[in-house]
Design a protein that fits this description.
The complex is a heterodimer. By secondary structure, chain A is an alpha+beta fold. Chain A has a single domain, classed as Roll (Thiol Ester Dehydrase, Chain A), CATH 3.10.129. Chain A contains three helices and eight strands; from the N terminus they run H-H-E-E-E-E-H-E-E-E-E. The model of chain A has no long low-confidence stretch (mean pLDDT 91). Chain B is an alpha+beta fold. Chain B has a single domain, classed as Roll (Thiol Ester Dehydrase, Chain A). Chain B has a six-stranded antiparallel beta sheet. In chain B, strand 5 and strand 6 form a beta hairpin. Chain B is elongated. The model of chain B has no long low-confidence stretch (mean pLDDT 93). The chains are: A alpha+beta, B alpha+beta. At the A-B interface, helix 2, strand 3, helix 3 and strand 5 of A face helix 1, helix 2 and strand 3 of B. Strand 5 of chain A pairs antiparallel with strand 3 of chain B, so a sheet runs across the interface.
Chain lengths: 149, 135
């Protein structure tokens, strides 16, 4: 999960984190990362379409993709894997993904405070300047989830 | 259990979303806990919660448009999801409410809950564009 320097390394951690559960079911995979951003890839799959008869990815999997890429971008920015809960996530859909296209989710953690992390990002199907969707999210640091009761 | 009038998307069916009931014309959707929807161990993934919320919003709008005899091609404009409580490893429900139904767009609020419908685990607001049926 960490590089030789001890920093959180998304390229090493993602294959483990994306193997099981919902991300595993969707087939999400690591694509690229930088100091404060992570890209994940959601491959095309026939049974994830949003409207019968139209080979276009549903919007639900795009939210999942961006939520996961957001979490990884926070840990990459912090350089450590700390528990965060999604507080609020907004997705603005610019256009449908192209037919049978994989979607890349690019999430950048542009600000962290003691308790919160702020993320923005785009989902695109090849050209980052012509996105499928733009997202903004706020995440809360939780050493123990305060919402659990 | 399923209402034939409520037609779920291939994504929703593949994830395991079902129609639990139709209350006064409003579809109540449900999903069982399983590895397909799991985030951190024994908890619902926020993306799966969002998928359920969004599906419930569309199911309600389609049902209402069908009741009114209107035909549209629905396109998402945006969705904002508020996560209120961690989703546990149990069955989850979701149901929408139409805030506004215009000629070209609709605003829909959706809530998801587990044990108690008065204690939602997540809510969403969706804006949906209603285009011409053949568009």
């Amino acid at each position: 999960m960490t590089s030789s320097s001890g920093q959180f390394d998304p390229s090493a951690a993602a294959p483990f984190m994306l193997r099981h559960g919902h991300p595993g079911w969707l087939g999400m995979a690591y694509h690229a990362h930088g100091p404060d951003w992570v890209e994940l890839k959601l491959p095309w799959r026939e049974d994830l379409i949003g409207q019968p008869g139209m080979p276009v990815l549903a919007s639900g999997p795009i939210i999942s993709l961006m939520d996961m890429a957001s979490g990884l971008s926070i840990w990459t920015t912090l350089g450590a894997l700390r528990p965060y809960a999604t507080l609020d996530l907004r997705v603005d859909y610019q256009r449908p993904a192209r037919e049978r296209a994989a979607v890349i989710g690019h999430a950048q953690c542009y600000k962290t405070t003691r308790s919160a992390a702020f993320v923005r990002g785009v989902a695109h199907d090849g050209d980052p300047d012509d996105p499928v969707a733009q997202i903004a999210g706020v995440f809360m640091s939780i050493e123990r989830d305060p919402r659990s009761g | 259990m399923a209402d034939p009038a409520v037609d779920l998307t291939p994504y929703a069916r593949s994830l395991g979303i079902q129609v639990a009931a139709v209350e006064d014309g409003t579809p109540v959707l449900t999903i069982d806990f399983g590895s397909e929807v799991e985030g951190r161990p024994q908890h619902l993934h926020g993306g799966a919660t969002s998928g359920l919320l969004e599906t419930a919003g569309y199911a309600l709008l389609r049902a209402e448009l069908a009741r009114l005899g209107r035909e549209h091609r629905l396109k998402p404009i945006n969705i904002t999801v508020e996560f209120l409580a961690a989703g546990k490893s149990r069955r989850t429900f979701a149901k929408g409410r139409i805030n506004r139904l215009g000629r070209r767009n609709a605003n829909i609020a959706v809530e998801a809950w587990q044990d108690d419908s008065n204690r939602p685990i997540a809510t969403a607001i969706m804006n949906i564009l209603m285009g011409e049926a053949g568009e």
